[in-house]
Amino acid sequence: MTHELTGKRILITAGAAGIGRIMAEKMNAAGARVFVCDIDQTALADLSTTHPDIGQMQADISDRAAVDAFFEQGLAALGGLDVLVNNAGIAGPTGPVEDINPDDFERTLAINITGQFLCTRLAVPHLKAAGGGAIINLSSAAGKFAFPLRTPYSASKWAVVGFTKSLAAELGPFNIRVNAILPGAVEGPRIERVITAKADARGVPFEEMLANYTNLASMGRLIPPEDIAAMALFLASDDCGTLSGQALSIDGDTQMLK
After folding, report:
1. 213 is known as an active-site residue
2. Which residue among the candidates 71, 105, 153, 158 is catalytic per the annotation?
């Protein structure tokens, strides 16, 4: 099924690479007007070349002034807002909790949850003015399972679920749907870096740690990023109806993380 997004005005954080880029491309192809930010200038330049109709700017969403600028430029380009996709996030440090640098912990939360708050607080008045809309927050399988050696990341992703459910209750009366997507281990360079760091922390080969990820999902494989984008497309569309306040797992039926 192709979900129609013609005329939808959509802001996506970290939308120039990875999952965010695939979301931006698919939403654009479905008829939406899309504006993205990203911290990666090289990725932004490439997106500008391949999709000049997708608006963009460089921004670190943990920086309040940068978020303000993103909304100012994005809303000016789009002429309003129907959907916010809080996609930006980092993996954070890997290691025993006693070895984690507090600065790294704070940086992980600043991007993965405070950044979502900074964007959402600016988006809500415009969604209300539009008569409703949708907020899509990216969490993780680490937002529902324990994730040893990844406490900063897991703490931030559990926080996203609580943020999402509370927002859904608060914003439902304004016809604003709020949902979280909880990806499992998604194919690509980022999960390769995470698995490498986890293997190093445990002193095991990369292949053994990769098997740890795939063997813990009943479908036995990594998740294509297109699956995450497809869910985001549905959540952004009017086909989504009254679906709100949900933490939606796209994880190949992951049973646990370790």
Report:
1. no
2. 153
Domain boundaries, the chain: 9-184+223-249, 185-222
Mean pLDDT by groups of 10 residues along the chain of 258 residues: 86 97 97 98 97 97 98 98 98 96 98 98 98 98 96 98 98 98 88 83 85 86 93 96 97 91
Give residue 197's pLDDT: 83
Give me the pLDDT at residue 188, please. 80
Neighbours of 221 (CB within 10 A): 12
Residues 133, 82 contacting (CB under 8 angstroms): yes
Q: What is the 3-state secondary structure (H, E, C) of the chain?
A: CCCCCCCCEEEEECCCCHHHHHHHHHHHHCCCEEEEEECCHHHHHHHHHHCCCCEEEECCCCCHHHHHHHHHHHHHHHCCCCEEEECCCCCCCCCCHHHCCHHHHHHHHHHHHHHHHHHHHHHHHHHHHCCCEEEEEECCHHHCCCCCCCHHHHHHHHHHHHHHHHHHHHHHHHCEEEEEEEECCECCHHHHHHHHHHHHHHCCCHHHHHHHHHHCECCCCCECHHHHHHHHHHHHCHHHCCCCCCEEEECCCECCCC
Q: Give the domain 9-184+223-249 fold.
A: Rossmann fold (3.40.50)
